[in-house]
């Protein structure tokens, strides 16, 4: 199976290019962004050596559906989705924090809790919780956005004290984050899933706050299967989940957590294919539609053709 690992386009009026961990972002005339969601995969802030077929398409199409389904809550940056792996949108000035919201004690929060911490990002947690327990209420645990290296936990108090975000804007970001998580939870429930935790990124343009980047994808969110959730908790069994956590777990089990001196384990074709299948499974589970694989024979030329057509109309 073919995968898109990198792109090298030169679009008309292209004014900038940025290569992120997963996305290649082309700026057009300093007005629009063409975001190509590649098949690269990252974990522990490290881009892994092998790309995952159809991962970019899965992420882009899930994000497009959820952005469309939440635009009554908060306006978003999207102007067009001309290709299964591409979104074109307005340029926004991003806030320098990511709004992480958690309804359950899982992943990073659980690792902190199990190490004895009872406060995450300034939010207190009660004693006696188990991994994957539902929290008394959803909590927001922001992180700083690192241009290089690891994102760092930060409290609301520190964000305001350091002037990273104004109090007026931060309270609006909180309001949007809770509302988006509630909507995502409701949509997931209809598909037999639990939206465990997720993150949102926001930016501004012309004084308006916009929701930017992807939302509710397996790269930005963690999902459990609702059926059997409580039985598994009662029996102290691992939850059946659809998220990138299974990739992190495989890496941890093979001695890699992104720390200095550690080497990424070999990603065999079997591992790559299994990750691809898990991404497609999540798409079909949450969207409720059969995943239709886009033509992968000439991915770059397909994308270029579709983007050029779209740019003519903007």
Helix and strand topology:
Layout (H helix, E strand, L loop, with lengths): L13 E6 L3 E6 L3 E6 L4 E2 L2 E2 L7 H15 L8 E6 L2 E5 L2 E2 L2 E8 L2 H8 L4 E2 L2 E2 L9 E7 L2 E2 L7 E2 L2 H6 L5 H24 L2 E13 L2 E5 L8 E5 L3 H6 L6 E3 L1 H9 L15 H19 L11 H15 L1
Antiparallel strand pairs: 1-2, 2-3, 3-7, 4-5, 6-7, 8-15, 9-12, 9-13, 9-15, 10-11, 13-14, 15-16, 15-17, 17-18
Helix pairs in contact: 1-7
Structure description:
It is a single chain. By secondary structure, the chain is an alpha+beta fold. It folds into two domains: 144 residues, Phosphorylase Kinase, domain 1, CATH 3.30.200; 150 residues, D-amino Acid Aminotransferase, Chain A, domain 1, CATH 3.30.470.20. It is built from eight helices and 18 strands. Helix 1 packs parallel to helix 7. Strands 8, 9, 12, 13, 14, 15, 16, 17 and 18 form a nine-stranded antiparallel beta sheet that branches. 32% of the residues lie in helices and 27% in strands. The longest helix is centred in the middle third of the chain and has 24 residues. The mean pLDDT is 94. InterPro entries: SAICAR_synt/ADE2_N, SAICAR_synthetase_CS. This is Phosphoribosylaminoimidazole-succinocarboxamide synthase. Pfam families: SAICAR_synt.
């Amino acid at each position: 199976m073919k995968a898109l690992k990198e792109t090298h386009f030169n679009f008309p009026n292209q004014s900038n290019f940025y290569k992120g961990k997963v996305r290649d972002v082309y700026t057009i005339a300093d007005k629009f962004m063409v975001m190509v969601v590649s098949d690269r995969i990252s974990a522990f802030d490290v881009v892994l050596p092998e790309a995952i077929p159809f991962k970019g398409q899965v992420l882009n199409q899930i994000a497009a559906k959820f952005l469309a389904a939440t635009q009554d809550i908060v306006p978003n940056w999207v102007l067009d989705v001309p290709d299964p792996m591409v979104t074109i949108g307005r340029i926004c000035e991003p806030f320098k924090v990511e709004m992480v919201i958690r309804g359950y004690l899982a992943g990073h929060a659980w690792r902190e809790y199990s190490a004895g911490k009872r406060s995450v990002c300034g939010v207190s947690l009660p004693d006696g919780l188990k991994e994957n327990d539902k929290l008394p209420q959803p909590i927001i645990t922001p992180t700083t956005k690192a241009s290089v290296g690891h994102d760092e936990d930060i409290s609301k108090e520190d964000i305001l004290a350091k002037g990273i975000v104004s109090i007026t804007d931060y309270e609006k970001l909180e309001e949007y984050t809770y509302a988006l998580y509630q909507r995502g939870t409701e949509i997931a429930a209809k598909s037999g899933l639990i939206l465990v935790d997720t993150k949102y990124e926001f930016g501004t343009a012309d004084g308006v706050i916009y929701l930017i980047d992807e939302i509710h994808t397996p790269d930005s969110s963690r999902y459990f299967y609702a059926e059997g959730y409580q039985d598994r908790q009662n029996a102290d069994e691992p939850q059946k989940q659809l998220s990138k956590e299974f990739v992190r777990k495989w890496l941890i089990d093979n001695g890699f957590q992104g720390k200095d001196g550690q080497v990424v384990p070999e990603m065999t074709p079997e591992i790559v294919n299994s990750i691809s299948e898990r991404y497609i499974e999540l798409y079909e589970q949450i969207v409720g539609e059969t995943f239709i694989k886009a033509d992968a024979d000439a991915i770059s030329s397909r994308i270029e053709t579709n983007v050029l057509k779209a740019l003519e109309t903007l």
